[in-house]
Write a structure and sequence with these properties.
The structure holds two protein chains of two kinds. Chain A is globular, with a radius of gyration of 22 Å. In chain A, strand 15, helix 11 and strand 16 form a beta-alpha-beta unit. In chain A, helix 1 crosses helix 16, helix 10 crosses helix 11 and helix 12 runs antiparallel to helix 13. Chain A is built from 16 helices and 16 strands. Chain A is α/β, with parallel strands linked by helices. Chain B has three domains: 61 residues, Roll (SH3 type barrels), CATH 2.30.30; 59 residues, Nucleic acid-binding proteins (OB fold (Dihydrolipoamide Acetyltransferase, E2P), Beta Barrel), CATH 2.40.50; 57 residues, Nucleic acid-binding proteins (OB fold (Dihydrolipoamide Acetyltransferase, E2P)). Chain B is flat. By secondary structure, chain B is mainly beta.
Chain lengths: 438, 185
């Protein structure tokens, strides 16, 4: 499944262990460095992370992953996450009780940010290292203490492939009072940025197509209903988009000579598929599986982040949306198409073009990159979320070149894993921070 | 109070008890509608420069320092010399002191020079400035859709983006905060 490692790349120390979430063997990649870990433990025994949820699951999805990954790398550090919408968080982490002000889950303390007042602050205090995510506003009741009691405030920004990000990375942001220092940390796709949050479980070792099929079946509710198209020879794709027109995707899948199985994630994708399917004749469907021509569309239940990460690695291609899923698609090393968050005046096109310029470094020599970029830009050219978007993308080039694209994206994923590990970069920044000289 | 996105070269702000003069301000649109501003600031007490970043919407205490209307006379490479219009006193500024204002500076131009403790520390440009286009490629027939822009040099040598209908010799209005074309003058 993955090419052999070359002289220039070797995985960090690998510890085999059985994933708690699955009943097959996976390989856990242990990036932690003992010295680094101890330094951070000594300097910052506790980390506070603040998250303001705007819409969808973009903010909390990244914060949830960031908190869990930090915990995995720095197990001795206490991590507290302040979230202002536990109801939304519960959607991606069902163990959360939205009525609890403070609760423990996955060895992380989760605090309802809406309940944060002077009384609660007297009990919980501040930490020396504080993260605000995506420039969310930390409540004054916390900040009035943090200005004088905390040491370092880091704003973890949105991921972007744009060049200007490098100039903003690790830059100070002056604060109005106190001794606290604030810095911007800019995730990105090269060594001069903050990098991307790594997968905790990677890569997946799959020996043959049959084994892969068995693994995929474990994720599919009632796989016997889609059994006709679930075979070794099928093309498997995951689809996780904003609300959009998916008719072209279906039409281009129909044009393939192989069976195609599309796994639909999230309400927006599922509703988009349902809308597209309404216009097609001869559809057989039940509650979760729709089969038409050579395609089966399977409506997937919500699955935990780490299982989604693994599933992406089992697919032939992935269509992903937003920031966190894009990162997972890159690290999965499989061909993908990105549905960027729609912004005013179609500004997402600027983001997509910037990302394509990064992709070109890997894909430029193996395929006609212009065709791939055309698809990415067209797929993102809608001004708003709607079932009736008039975008003119064609997926055929992409679908017919999956193997070539996969080879290049696997290389990209190796590069990102080796050179752009956000947690390692964050730890280095924190450890290099000159508080000992103050 | 002033929003960070409204700050431009020459503005003075007070942060945590320190006075800073803005030398450069760059606005960038982030993901999901969030934007940020990178500023090069000079600490007026220590002279130390720092590159800093803020989210759009953050507010600053802006401080109005003494300013004098002065005429830009000439540059000898390292220094840019200005003359007080009333006293004929001359003051020098460095390239760093001028920051983004350098993009629009022309000899004989009358401009506000900011003075702190008797010393010139920067200049403040008007928000809107009129300059002449000295070079731009002619528009291509038919290529006139919506927001298409082309590069154009103004008479200070600085390059901006202008609509296709703008030609050499046109005088244009530019927003000095964003370096964006506003209209023909």
């Amino acid at each position: 499944m993955y090419p052999p490692l070359d002289d220039h790349y070797s995985y960090p120390q690998l510890d085999d262990h059985r994933s708690p979430l699955n009943d097959w063997w996976v390989t856990r990649t242990d990036f932690t460095n003992e010295t680094q870990e101890v330094q951070v433990q000594v300097q910052f025994p506790m980390i506070d992370i603040f998250c303001h949820i705007i819409d969808n699951f973009g903010d909390i999805g990244v914060v949830y992953r960031f908190a869990r990954t930090m915990k995995a790398f720095f197990p001795k550090t206490k991590i507290r996450v302040f979230v202002d919408d536990l109801n939304t968080f519960k959607s991606i982490c069902t163990a959360i009780d939205q009525h609890q002000t403070i609760q423990e889950h996955e060895d992380i303390t989760w605090i309802d940010l809406t309940k944060l007042d002077d009384e609660l602050m007297k009990c919980i205090g501040t930490s020396e290292l504080v993260f605000e995510t995506f420039a969310c506003e930390i409540p004054a009741v916390y900040m009035k203490r943090a200005y004088y009691q905390s040491r370092l405030l880091i704003n973890l920004e949105h991921l972007s492939a744009e060049e200007w990000v490098e100039g903003y990375h690790e830059k100070e942001s002056l604060l109005p009072e106190g001794t606290l220092k604030k810095y911007y940390f800019m995730p990105g796709f090269n060594e001069n940025t903050g990098g991307i949050i790594p997968n905790l479980f990677s890569p997946l070792a799959v020996s043959c197509a049959k084994e892969r099929l068995e693994m995929i079946k474990k994720y599919i509710p009632e796989p016997e209903k889609a059994v006709a198209l679930l075979n070794d020879n099928s093309i498997f794709g995951s689809v996780f988009t904003y609300t959009r027109n998916l008719e072209r995707l279906l039409e281009d899948c129909f044009a393939l000579s192989k069976p195609v199985v599309l796994l639909s994630f999230g309400d927006k994708t599922t509703n988009s598929f349902r809308n597209a399917l309404k216009k097609l004749p001869s559809t057989t469907s039940d509650a979760q599986v729709t089969t038409i021509h050579n395609c089966s569309i399977i409506e997937m239940q919500f699955i935990p982040q780490q299982e989604y990460d693994l599933l992406l690695q089992l697919m032939d291609f992935n269509i992903v949306r937003g920031e966190d899923s894009l990162t997972r698609a890159v690290l999965a090393g499989k061909p993908f198409i990105w549905n960027a968050y729609i912004q005013d005046n179609c500004y997402q096109i600027v983001k997509v073009e910037a990302f394509c310029s990064i992709m070109k470094k890997w894909l430029g020599d193996s395929i006609e990159f212009d065709e791939y970029q055309k698809l990415m830009v067209a797929f993102n050219s809608a001004p708003d979320e709607s079932f009736e978007q008039k975008t003119n993308e064609s997926f055929l080039f992409f679908l017919k070149n999956l193997k070539k694209i996969e080879h290049s994206i696997t290389e990209m994923s190796y590069f990102m894993t080796r050179n752009c590990n956000l947690i390692q970069k964050m730890a280095t920044f924190i450890n290099d921070y000159p508080y000992n000289n103050e | 109070m002033k929003l960070v996105e409204d700050l431009r070269a020459g503005n003075t702000v007070k942060v945590n008890g320190n006075l800073f003069i803005v030398q450069k301000a760059i606005y960038n649109k982030g993901a999901r509608g969030a934007s940020s501003v990178k500023m090069k600031l000079k600490n007026l007490a220590t002279g130390a420069m720092s590159e800093t970043v803020y989210r759009a919407g953050e507010k600053f205490d802006d401080v109005v320092l003494e300013r004098k209307q002065m005429q830009y006379l000439y540059s000898n490479g390292d220094f840019y010399t200005f003359m007080d219009q009333e006293t004929y006193e001359q003051m020098d500024l460095t390239k760093d002191d001028l920051g983004d204002a350098l993009n629009y500076l022309q000899e004989q131009m009358i401009i506000d020079v900011i003075v702190y403790e008797g010393k010139a520390v920067g200049v403040e440009l008007p928000v809107v400035i009129e300059l002449e286009i000295t070079y731009t490629e002619p528009a291509v027939r038919g290529d006139t859709g919506g927001k298409v822009l082309k590069a154009a040099k103004i008479n200070t040598g600085y390059e901006i983006q202008v609509p296709l209908y703008v030609n050499i010799g046109d005088k244009v209005k530019i927003d000095t905060r964003t370096n964006e074309f506003m209209s023909r003058a």
